Amino acid sequence: MPKTIHSKDYLLVIERLKKARIESDLTQAQVADKLNKPQSFVSKAELGERRLDVMELKKFADIYEKDINFFIK
């Protein structure tokens, strides 16, 4: 069974994750501070090196003031 972290659908999620951060005019470090995580957490999430669970994705959506559907549709 293929790893879903590299699926076409998941690649779209991480592409939109980075797009939302840029549109919000925030750096990875600023987002990490808001999440109480290291900057590497945000970097790995945006690079697809770390898979996000739904609650983590919701936190990103809240920071970027986006509906969670923005990332998954």
TrEMBL record:
Domain called HTH cro/C1-type: residue spans: 17-71
Alphabetical list of InterPro entries matching this protein: Cro/C1-type_HTH (IPR001387), Lambda_DNA-bd_dom_sf (IPR010982)
Single GO MF annotation: DNA binding
SMART domains linked: HTH_XRE
Gene3D superfamilies reported for this sequence: lambda repressor-like DNA-binding domains
Record's protein name: HTH cro/C1-type domain-containing protein
